[in-house]
């Protein structure tokens, strides 16, 4: 258990970080999504953390709802692993970073599959792999599982957002037709795309997202409810692919500098996961050129630095240093 | 401290793994390097581990010397970071996996630099970045530092191997001339190549290599001698790039399935590092199509599985589970 | 005018070539299209030539109908030029060979357009550029124009073939959705694809095809009817792109070895055009790995060699040698 | 024979074109080569044409010497064909346009050779293919042959230019080392590069260059001296590759818009060849972004337009129209 003093110390530090990046955002935030969002929604900024022991921290707008967008790729990939096993899933979608943008139309030619499940092509294959006889069953299955991850039984698809996505959807349809022509996906394309976009259109809060991350950090079991969201043998595969492919074409630099498995979405949301310790959810709509939340990225970097969270950090930099004694034998 | 019982248990398990993969190698080992190596040298197989508390394990041929080859890229990159700082080093060589083979002639066009220091182009730039007014000073500096990493003051460049490398060297010369034409390296090309190949030709044992890895695991301080080999602020950068780029074009799959930062060389050597815990050195000359040691890769996979070493493993799979309580606050 | 003696000599030589390649086909022909074609249709082999003075030669199955498939790309590109002008057409579709297969999903990124109108992506853009308020008007316009090219008022779309094409159409749909997402095409995608596939499904004979080629050779005027099929300022653009991009990924080698502007289709049809002199149509269903008719390619090569038709041939090799004196001033 | 009236008419038209582009150059010419050239040398502008019947036209600075640079690639490729035959030459260097810049380090992977002899990699292979036991013999052979092409027995390598080239030569050395590592070239690399750069450093005048082009137009026989410079069976291969690959990454657009086989060099020189009719040499040092002479390109375009020289032009646009009757049978 985190003791009271520690909990309060962390809370103060997170509030300070939040305050710092709120200001910083004023002139750094360069683009907004969607472009017609009301002015006041553009300045939302929430930061929430959940420890695997259940401790939670919240700074800023942690009750504002936003669609998961590409952050959903993480959890849908987990479902694909569960419903098909690791070997079959790997046969259908790779785990190599591609260095390409999220909507790239290149494939892993040698293995006849999308490069990884964090780019659109791979996420569409993962949606195709979710069990269910039609789009309704698949979306129900996704929703049910996301509710276990978050412990929030009221998660739902925002139908207005889904419809808007379906109207502006040429790239995903194009990817699906190309992939079906290559034998990478099967079945009805409109259903594949609707499954994928439904997951993208599920709305959560930064607090929900931090619990979803903490469930991965906790080996697949929601630390608040004790319910299992994903088989423990699949957790490391999901986290690995966040580490190597999660931050689009800046994945290598992210692994190097921040060193925390993470995934971002065009809502301006980021989930990040420190295995065995906690999950964090950030929400702030301004995006950088890579499509990552400007404030979110800045805050994650500093959080990693301040708390020594880099997974390959020197023990002396890290709170792990205090507890990881004696060092375990292999 | 690892207690006696644990130490002996681990020793027995490592011996069993070593015995299993020695047999397995008979029909799996598909290529040898160099082709004219004596028959008996081809079957060498050593496995050594060093814990950050100084405990060591050795199975098989742990006293046989072999040249580091590409494994040297890890430690020379560390020197480049020390001698130039992280920012300047990143300006000159990236940290993104390229998905290309080790001797690829592609570059990160957008940033005008090699993709990463684990492929030849990037390793040549790293050699160019080591401080020293000429090749002799640079090689002396490398040797001195490698001796601190290993705690072995007798490490030396094998001149016969170096000369053989210099004779069969068109690809590296070509890369250097191209890079100089692009402004990616400066100075005398023969000196850059000789610096790089001298580091590749330093001979070590599997035991030496495990200590070098343990020094990284221990935040840059050799756990046997207490000497610092690399500034602690650079350790995580070195380990990150092993994780994302260390195993050539199979880096993503390695991160996913094995989940331990590692680097291989064409001698059939592999170093792998579990931060805060230990380093391992493996030596077995048969190579797979990616240029990685066949037995070494098989053994690493099983070691990761058996001991739950994947950096993103579920705590219940892992010896960390026993000690990592309570979970630290961020 | 070709005199009687010459005409008969050429007729004999063409018959000999036809006979030679009919035999050669028996073991060379490696694939058939479509796979369910009746056995006897697979051995059709027609060769027809039309001189700009109206002389015609026919060897073999010159009255058998086949769908134009990709050969239609040539004539639809001509319509795009007429309906939009050369500058606007070039803005929308390039003229650079891509070295890629016909169904490639790569684009000319620098100019934000398909590489050229002889690959599917570019042919779809050309179909999109044909004047007409809907698919019916566009297809009527295409048909009307192809009838002028061929002098055959009965040319029609084979609806059975069109429907089969529409059922197996993922790649073209994928290309269109991707291109619309990139702003390369506009409007209804099903209509773009149906326009393109309707042109592909127009059936002709080898004799018709030779007249269509002769119309291009004759500066755009059908040599049998005297009707103009395409503005003379666009003829050279159409022929140039046949020369540099017509034979898929073997275009450079074709320009080098055969040296006659040509275009092939998966029916096993080839049109080739010697500007100012004649057009030829060949039909033989076996395809090589590039998707070109096996017999057709063999016959074209030998025809070029025998008659010295290479556009860059030495005058001494060529029938031009006899007439092209004195050499004109520039 | 060109009659006197025609000859004078053409002379007047060429003078007018020359005058027009001299003025146009003032603000269009954007870069100069070499950068330290004397101010007055930068404005040189010569245009010379030679008909296959020996008629010559000269406008402007037709007696100024300049190094051939990449224009030499055309004639050295001819020598490679002669000394090795077409099949062996094709095995070693392709004929496909690459769409890449002249100094690209990409190769035709499928065939394990440079894409074509008009980019540096391919030109170095061609130099490697010229007969001769060492660099002196090879350069003597090249010089001897270039003298036959031009009919100028005084052509020589400019040693000052050669030495400057050898000092700034990293890219070519890099390409050679890479190609030797891939088995694409053999032997001493310094000799390959010196052979290639010696050919580049041969100095000619615009008048010489027009005769060299006319020799190709005339089937390989110098129209002034009657001497054969290249076997007639190789002429069309040389001209084809000029057409498809001669103008760097703008080759397709050049073939489309200008339609005359041509090759440019960084001196600001261009040779172009209308088979069976004439060769032209242009010299004007300002270069566009593709590395082609600004005035030279403008002038070639207009010359093609004015005189209807496009090889695929409508007969009605062309002086061919006047003489090419009756149309020959194939």
TrEMBL record, chains A, B, C, D:
GO molecular function: glutaminase activity
Family matches, as InterPro entries: Beta-lactam/transpept-like, Glutaminase
Positions that bind substrate: 70, 120, 172, 196, 248, 266
Keyword entries, A-Z: Acetylation, Hydrolase
Matching HAMAP family: Glutaminase
Alphabetized PANTHER family for the sequence: GLUTAMINASE
Protein name, UniProt field: Glutaminase
Organism: Actinomycetospora lemnae
